[in-house]
Amino acid sequence: MIGTRGSGPLCFFQKIAAAAIIPALFLTPAVSSAAPQEASTFIKDVVPNYRTDEIPVIRSDVALFDFIPEGKTEQIKLTGIYPERSFRFYSPKDEIISKVTVTLKYTPSPSLIPQQSQLNIFLNGQIQKSLPITKEQLGNAVTQTVELNTKNIEESNRMTIEFVGVYTNNCGNIANPSLWLTIDDSSYMSFNTQKLRLANDLSLMPAPFANNLSPNATTLPVVFNGNPSPALKKASGIFASWIGTKTEWRGAEFPVYIKEVPQAQNFVVFATNDSRPEFLKNLPAFTGPFVTVVDAPNSLYAKVLVIGGKDEAEVLTAAEWLAVNSQVLTGSSAEVKDFKPLPNREAYDAPNWIPTNDKVTFEKIAKYRGQLRSSGLHPAPISLEVRLPPDLYMVNKSNVDLDLRYRYTKPTSGEAAQMRFLLNEQLVESFELDPKKNSSSFTSRFSLLNGLANMWNDTSVPTGLLGADNLMQFDFQYGLAVPGGSVENCKSVALIPSQVEIDPTSTIDFSGFYHFAKLPNLNLFTVSGFPFTKYADLSETGVVLAKDAPAAVLTTYLNTMARLAAQTGYPATKLTVVETIDKGALKDKDILVFGENSRILDGIDKEDAGVAIDKIKQGIEKSLTKAVSDDKNMESVVAEDAGIAAIVQYQSPFSDDRSVVAVLGDGQDGSFLINKRLMIPGDLKLIDGSVAVFKTNATPTSYNIGPTYYTGSLPWHQRVWYSMLDQPVLLVLFTLVCALLFAGGIYYLMHSLIRYRSRRHK
């Protein structure tokens, strides 16, 4: 029963919760078809509905600078020209913020006029409080606490601090250096939060199971009633990858529970009629692939996502259906009928990757509305993320064509203004904004690397700056000259914000490149998931997991699936999962192995894999406690018993252009370590070579050992050129030979021409 006690703003949310829950108890589940009627009885009667005010209040203090959208900084200085700073915080659907305060620690300039100078605090555009700067505060550290109005709180919130500084009553200048106020990094925000019991409604997905709003990572436990079969392992991998597409760069972790249930936390269960956790014993028998949301046991608010079926094959069908049909979910449950799996995807067609077979408009690259616009006295740079296939071979072309169109507010005559184009934070080119131009659309270009004159309607991006993950920025800079004055001749200045925009019809063209890569190269795997992400649905990926794989290894597997899907933007619906080495199942596939040691790798040893790789395998098999050495490239890999993990890549024994990547941890500590690293993309960008070793409290170490191999294809002339890139002496000799042959040809031609003319004169 829903309680009605309480007072203040909390009662409002209680009434909403009650209104949302009670109708949901009687909903007839209908997505693909109606669920069994007994399911609503289970949801309604078996687990009681608790009052929201019985859920305890959680108090948390968070550093204010953690909420800066642009990233944490050491200090904030507000001035007359930069008088505002914004901070973002979030309120999930399953949480109520009953009280929030901000404690500001700041120092105002001693030159300010008291009372006329002030700090204004806004929440989502609504004024919360104005803090006058008093005489006693000038030049001193000040601490002030402001309580924000919870009625103004939304899912995504922006708190803005505005500095109004006055230093003179006559003819002030906003550019005066005495106008300043600094905010210290010890400032913080305090939250009183309560978990909210949501209705059992699939339309809320991915909430409350995944975070796709705030920058925080998602932790979602996965429950099995026993050691999962290959079908359940695949089903859980598909589900984890689907969550990865929702959490994107935020990261996701999936602690695995076998015959256990997590406490007071949202989680997901994979169940059949014959194998289900005890708390689901009253859930009606599945009559087909089934997805439902129920209340979690031993919790006042948590939810359980149940993915079930009569048998494991139907559980797999339900997981695949959920991954590709989540946008049409409604009601508390859905029974899947007549589901037809989608066909395999083509190579390099990942939704998050830029197509490389034709021009692409900026409209397709932009992820949200308004991304191509910016405004303000100093407009923030317009940023676009450009993800490319990691095996794009860029030696055969020196540039990428960029057809750029943009509009901007006409700069004031006599003041400098320019647009800077940056690629991965490196300046590519900049040019002046013509004050005679109006704000209509036009096209321009940057200089080519070869120094040729500019050509209309064309821009070139140097490929040497490009990688798999790229950031293009268009930074419009306006000079700001604020004229001064005197008491007798005071000049008022009204600053007009500038508006800039990149035309959505601008294009970038990556066509004409080949796909070719030298392996092993773990950097391609850790940054972009290559070679597995070549096919976004992982249709040509085989995963090897031992039959009795422990929970920690299963967690590593699920975390990796989420990370791969976050790169591609598509769930791994065509994944192949096996428990033993099966040449028939793994032939013509890239193989991804998860284990605690190298025992699982023994069946795929390759005779010519190299002595160094064999030593790595032996070292992992012995819990990575012995030193592993290679005369040329490495002296010591491991010499301690602390948490250790490794990633190894080498050529598949079943296909010459395929890879084996093994993600290995040494027991619980090693698995914890590798999973922690998988949550920190920045650490993984440091990895390359064929072997990467992770140790507690240490930077990952990479080694380039073992034989090399290639994936993709190049024309013969490009292959010859590529083979010479690693042989500088041979390249010089080849260049000299070509020069001699060319000079000889010219000499012979000129000599023949002279002889011909001599004969004619005779």
From TrEMBL:
Alphabetic keyword roster: c-di-GMP, Cell inner membrane, Cell membrane, Cellulose biosynthesis, Membrane, Signal, Transmembrane, Transmembrane helix
Organism listed in the record: Turicimonas muris
Gene Ontology annotations of biological process type: cellulose biosynthetic process; UDP-alpha-D-glucose metabolic process
Localization per Swiss-Prot or TrEMBL: Cell inner membrane
InterPro entries linked to this entry: Cell_synth_B, Cell_synthase_bac
Bilayer-spanning residue ranges: 729-750
Keyword flag Membrane: yes
Membrane topology: Single-pass membrane protein
Pathway where this protein functions: Glycan metabolism; bacterial cellulose biosynthesis
Assembly and binders: Tightly associated with the cellulose synthase catalytic subunit.
Name of the protein: Cyclic di-GMP-binding protein
GO cellular component terms, A-Z: plasma membrane
Top-rank taxon, per record: Bacteria
Signal peptide bounds: 1-34
Biological function: Binds the cellulose synthase activator, bis-(3'-5') cyclic diguanylic acid (c-di-GMP).
Family membership: Belongs to the AcsB/BcsB family.
Listed PANTHER family: CYCLIC DI-GMP-BINDING PROTEIN
